[in-house]
Amino acid sequence: MKNRTLKVDYLARVEGEGAILVKIKGRHVSDVKFRIFEPPRFFEAFLRGRRFDEAPDITARICGICPVAYQMSACHAMEDAFGVQVGQPIRSLRRLLYCGEWIESHALHIHLLHAPDFLGYEDAIRMAKDHPEEVKRGLRLKKIGNAIVNLLGGREIHPINVRIGGFYSLPAKSEFLPLIENLKWARDAALKTVHWVSTFAFPDFEQDYNFVALRHPHEYPFNEGRLVSSKGLNIPVREFEQHFSEEHVAYSNALHSATRDGESYFVGPMARYNLNLDRFSSVAQQAAHEAGLGSVCRNPFQSIIVRAVELLYACDEAMRILDTYEKPETSFIGIAPKASSGFGCTEAPRGILYHSYRMDDRGVIVNAKIVPPTSQNQKTIERDLWKFVSANVGMQKDRLQWRCEQAVRNYDPCISCATHFVKPHIEDE
Amino acid sequence: MKPSRTLVIGVGNEFRGDDAAGLIAARKLRSLAPSDVRVIEHTGEGAALLDLWQGAETVIVLDAVQSGASPGTIYRIHANKKSLPPRYFQHSTHAFGVCHAIELAGALQCLPSSLWFFGIEGDSFRYTVGLSPPVQQAVASLASELANQYRHPWRPRLQATAHRS
Fold it and tell me: Is A227 in CB contact (< 8 Å) with chain B?
């Protein structure tokens, strides 16, 4: 049998610039590369020499889709360094801000970027002609997520109201009232989305993954918890670098993360779901059950259902927080810097985002390390491509190429984040 | 706030060289445009754009493009009548950007009565601040063209240009 190459030189419907190359020799895959060619951006180097309290706003610039995640991980790392714990009102508002980011990010990916793969459309524009209601629903849901980030964060993209220890200012209860009506609609709309995506056809592709996510004693994880895995890991965030490492590969501008044993692992909605199903609200648990999800989901093509259940949860959780909101007397806790190190990890829409910092006695950053979720998923994405193409090597090339792109989008990769970090190219040798 | 009947949206990233062409053109127009014309600068995030132009009658989008033409080439496209070629936007880092927003609005039948896209061919999109000389010249020329030729009432005159271009 002749050799073939599947190639996507510029992967569409992902955030940033990347490509896929799959080489097939005879009936076997000989090489898979998930290339990220967006230029590297050296944020960790920029942070050296800057004051500790600049980290949330500098790192938020890594990504226009998930700036809240960067701000949250930076805040938690700095608060860890200086021994500060914020109170419950600030904790709740951070969760609310994160709900806004999850809603806008998940709504966009489900309705406009990923659904066209399942329904056989080249993009959302072509899909909109046949499915206008679903597209409009996605756009309105995204707008509601944006509204939460705008109100609490000061603006929709790269919010400016977050500071270490809390927020610069806080809205009055009355300012949240219009949001509550919108969130009631959003919760019903998200439930419709769960039902809609659960009717899609999914390739049979269950894999044995090492899922890694935060786990909190009481909450579905956003900001806090221990790092746990489906292979039995259970560690505090500060031990992350003892168990995971990054390596440079020549063909990608993003570092590849792996366990210390060199194994791939899986972060994001499916990891959170599999490790925290019991922490979902009853509404989200019921929706997951009705959508046919079991207690564990191992088919990455079904990540669209899991993402939709998380979208529903984020709307439900935002409602819960707003129902009991009273404006706190103080919006932040002051911090006195000292020579120290701190570690933070929060759940970005795409998975765990790890930050660590070392400061001198004036609070100036001496060293910074940032590990975004897409870097952590790269190795797993390549493994999926290898296994999927190996199992479907006889598939018509166009169809196989389509499935490869879809397989990458299962992870909602954010290439801009990873270069802080795609197209398939399938080649027969 | 009542939406302005005419809205000018300058799109781009001022830290990516010529990608700032639309932003700079909008800034130049802000001081030249009639007072009832609203001029805003935007990142180009598509879903927000769809929301932004709701209620406006005439929308003018100014953005950098990369089609392979000579740097500084100006494209004038009446989006109600002609599709935007996606290849102009190959260097957009947005999963859902300007081109998608305009085309999706068309598919959902929610385009403004008149949406004009003015694209300025860029030369360099590297991490730098400042426009390359041909793009700088094109931006000045486009701002002057819009300010001088399409002064009150903008909409009829813009429609007239559709026949000229």
Answer: no
Say if A212 is an interface residue toward chain B (CB within 8 Å).
Answer: no
CATH at residue A234: 1.10.645.10
Model ipTM value: 0.76
Handedness of CA B84, B90, B91, B95 (dihedral sign): positive
Count the domains in chain A.
1
CB contact under 8 A, B95 and A14: yes
Q: Could you give the domains of chain B?
A: 6-164 (3.40.50.1450)
**Helices and strands in chain B, H and E counts:** 5, 5
pLDDT one-digit tens code per residue, A71-118: 999 999 999 999 999 999 999 999 999 999 999 999 999 999 899 999
Domain span holding position A267: 54-395
CB-based contact B96 A113, cutoff 8 Å = yes
pTM of this structure? 0.89
The DSSP element (H or E) to which A357 belongs, if any, is strand A351-359
pLDDT of amino acid A392: 95
Torsion angle, alpha carbons of A337, A343, A347, A352, to 10: 150
Among A108, A135, A415, the residue with its CB nearest the CB of B108 is: A135
Decide if A45 is inside a domain.
no
Q: Is B141 on the interface with A (CB under 8 A)?
A: no
pLDDT band at A6 (very low <50, low <70, confident <90, very high): confident
The string of pLDDT tens digits covering residues A334-365 is 999 999 999 999 999 999 999 999 999 999 99
Residue B73: closest CA among B24, B115, B135: B135
